[in-house]
Amino acid sequence: MLGSPTDFWGKLESRSGEVFSWHPLTHHCADVAACCEGLLAHTIIGRRLARLIGREQLDETIRARLCVLAALHDFGKFNSGFQDKALSQPAFVRGHVKEALGIIATQGRGVGAEFFRALPVAEIVDWGETPAAAGELLVAVICHHGKPYRLVQDADPAWWSPRYGRSPFDGIRELYEKAVNWYPACRDDGAKLPASPPFQHAFAGVVMLADWLGSSTQFFPFSEHLDVDPITRSRSLASTAFERMGLTPDGARLDLGAESPGFARFTPFEPYESQSCVADAPVHPEGSLTVLEAETGSGKTEAAFGRYLRLFHAGVVDGMYFALPTRAAATQIHARIVKATRTAFPSYETRPPVVLAVPGYMKVDDASATILSRFEYLWNDDLQERFRYRGWAAENSKRFVAGSIVVGTIDQVLLSTIVVSHAHLRATALLRHLLVVDEVHASDPYMNRLLESVLRFHLDAGGQALLMTATLGSDARTRLLATAGANSGTPTIAEAIDTPYPAISTCLRSSSPGRTSSILGVRSPGNPKTFRVTLQRWMDNIDAIATQAVGAAAQGAHVLVIRNTVNGCIDTQRAIEAHAHARGIPAVLLTCGGVPAPHHSRFAGDDRRALDVAIEKAFGKGRQVEGRIAVATQTVQQSLDLDADLMISDLCPMDVLLQRAGRLHRHPSALRPDGFEHAELIVLVPSERNLGTFIRANGSANGPHGLGTVYQDLRTLEATYRLLEEHREIEIPRMARLVVEKATHPDSLAAIVSQLGAPWYEHERHQLGARMAQVSAGATNVLDRSRPFGDLEFPTREISRRIASRLGESDRIIDLGTVMGPFENLIDQISLPHHMAKGLPAEIDVRCESSERGSLNITLSTKRFVYDRLGIREFKD
Predict the structure, then answer these.
(1) Which range (131-145, 446-460, 704-718, 837-851) has the least confidence?
(2) What angle do CA 113, 116, 119 make, to 5 degrees?
(3) Which of 62, 222, 239, 607 could form a disulfide with 603 if both were Cys (CB 3.0 to 4.6 A apart)?
(4) What does the alpha-carbon distance between residue 715 and residue 413 come to, in Å, rounded to a whole number?
């Protein structure tokens, strides 16, 4: 509608404070109701909600009643304070969420009496199994902006008084009458709305997603006619949006054909036994959890995609979320999944879009987008009209999981279960997917507690999950399988060591008690690897590290140096550069854009991508014959396809060390220089053997290069140290179970403390206390779906931000304008890690000045930073 509103409005467009178009409120409510209808009837979300209440499908009456409630989500906008926002000089301004809750809380007293006559609350209450059931669901739909609020009576009569000849209560009455006519089955004598709190929380996510979809002018342009019933138009627009976004996957399923697709559908290579076993694991409609434990390079990514294809073809998932531990890993796997998807689904029109769920990247398939304004995005693809739909999920991190195939970080998954804004949306959208979590061993106790919560809700709703790892201890595996209802206890260390490896564990979710998991040993791909271990007390001796690395590179070796901290990485990079230049061989240094650089996380997004390409070119399958040196942090230990002749690594827990060693002699066919025919791993340890010297009086630890800080538990480091002293050669996969269990099993760690005595007892108490505190923090911060939706209240924005900061969600995105970066890429923003952004105000003045080539001096309020080929760091005089 053009011009100023002539009726109750739901959406506005204005310039310089003047309204030039608007969308009627009842029409917007029809848009959201139609989206809710589509999600419940035409995606697997309806079946997931049904599973939460023990049903196979939602009854038609339940669906109709839920859609009516969804239509009422914005009835608070009828209040005069909200409608006055269309005026250039409003008398007073109000919102619409707390206002709607406030008038419900009157329970028909005062101004609420007229509201209760306009909206027949008694009829709605009668729709529920209990008097509170429908009311809780109504509260859930009102709180559709991302978080719950409690009912608090707050209904000023001035807000609800008629203005300009329009009565808010007449508008509410008309909306309700239209909604029940749109969904007449709501008044049938069918099933009652359930009183189940998990159902309420899941439905809250449905309405949040429906509102976000229905509020998008990309899909729902403003109406041109006021005096028409909008539901036909809304349903048609919703159907088009769902189909083109991939939310309704029928076309893609038809593309796969009648027969269940095998690996030949997306790869010409015969599958390994582990890949076949994962893909062929039981298809269980009530939910299943599969755990794949296999060595690095065994094709776990392809196993996950094969599993997704089978479940998608069978109709038990609508999509896949592939969760990885780092942004670098996510960008690499995204490219591989894009290629596999293109092969598996030849038709572009029905092919599911593949979203990269990494904040700041904005990428779908091979196309990326440029932000034009807050709500406009320019996709670098010829099919702009197509990407109006296809790219929608990538345009905001809160809706990443609404994509069809999503590759992203584990953080985006864990945000679905903590008390932060839009957790409900993320969790409900995630129910559509096969949830794949790669490298689960990398999580700390806090992250594990959150992952267990995610899995429990996902599986309770009939969801499907696949966990993959090269190195998972039996204690962690037992806890994760328990989320699917497995009741087996943690095995003894002897039993754990005897467990097959590689192996696949499965647990099928069902209503029957006493469920157990099964574990199946599988054959490895047939490429066993043995690497020799040398312990060197060079952790603080960067000259010795540089001498070793440059000497090996001079002989033609590809050397990968991995430090535990970014500062250690940068210092080592500088030392190696100095040694290489002194020997007259600077060409051995890894370069990006023609300049030497380390590989770590503190680079702008475009520069990180350039570094990934550079290091894979130097160390990948097509690597140069000449020697090369790359200095990196944990960013290279997962998902990047790297092959080193020699690795130098800081001491770290055994499971992490095996991940790093997966990049050592990765490709059996690679040509090795003389003297490097056998894989060698040099592990850097402190100059003194006694790790106990890093234990403080209170039991905490603070040693060099991440000992006691990045890796807080010295018990696991001591266990790893002993294993490396005992086993100077490690064969994978034969010894994987042995070394991981001896380094992580509770019995093994307890034996070390008993032998070493004080101060290790204090350290053990501190670690167990810290673990309990982290688990407790996880439990405290977890969204409690056992409580009715209306009983919850999220913490303040600042507390929520601190909770999310554990997951990297509170990293600050700094807009730089458009400047030339160190690798001759144009960059416009950079992510500042949370700890570096501490103390910065919410609104910051950014000044960015170029000095020498690619070096930027960045001033953020009172803090100064340097960004160059070594990454971003605080400025030091």
Answers:
(1) 837-851
(2) 150
(3) 607
(4) 30
Q: How far is CA 380 from CA 71, 333, 365, 369, 698, in A?
A: 36, 21, 11, 6, 56
Edge-to-edge strand list for the sheet holding 354-357: 376-379, 367-373, 363-364, 354-357, 405-409, 319-324, 433-438, 464-469, 288-293, 503-508, 518-521
Question: Is 786 within 8 Å of 804 (Cβ atoms)?
Answer: no
Nearest to 111 by CA among 160, 153, 166: 160
Q: Containing H/E element for 306?
A: helix 300-314
Contact 801, 810 (CB under 8 A): yes
The DSSP secondary-structure symbol of 10 reads: E
d(CA 466, CA 290): 5
Cβ partners under 8 Å of residue 373, min gap 6: none
Q: Which two tokens stand for residue 853?
A: 């080539």
Strands of the sheet with 558-562, listed across from one edge:
628-632, 558-562, 646-650, 679-684, 529-536, 729-732
The CA distance from 801 to 400, in Å, is 19
What pLDDT is recorded for position 377? 57
Torsion (CA) 807, 809, 810, 811 in degrees, nearest 10: 100
3-state secondary structure of 269: coil
Mean pLDDT (whole number) for 685-707? 95
- Beta-strand relationship, 628-632 and 558-562: parallel
Which has the closest alpha carbon to 327: 579, 639, 569, 790? 639
Report the distance separating Cα 412 and Cα 400, nearest Å: 8
Q: What is the pLDDT of residue 490?
A: 79
Contact 85, 159 (CB under 8 A): no
What the block records as the tokens of 478 is 């037992």
Please write the tens of the pLDDT for every residue from 336-350: 999 999 999 999 889
Closest CA to 410 of 524, 339, 481, 330: 330
Burial class of residue 264, CB neighbours in 10 A (0-12, 13-18, 19+): exposed
Share of the chain above pLDDT 90, in %: 60
DSSP state of 844: -
pTM for the predicted model, two decimal places: 0.89
> Helix crossing, 736-744 with 746-756: angle to 10°?
50
Angle subtended at Cα 413 by Cα 769 and Cα 52, rounded to the nearest 5 degrees: 95
Residue 513 has pLDDT above 60, yes or no: no
- Residue 636's Cβ-side half-sphere holds a number of Cα atoms within 13 Å equal to 36
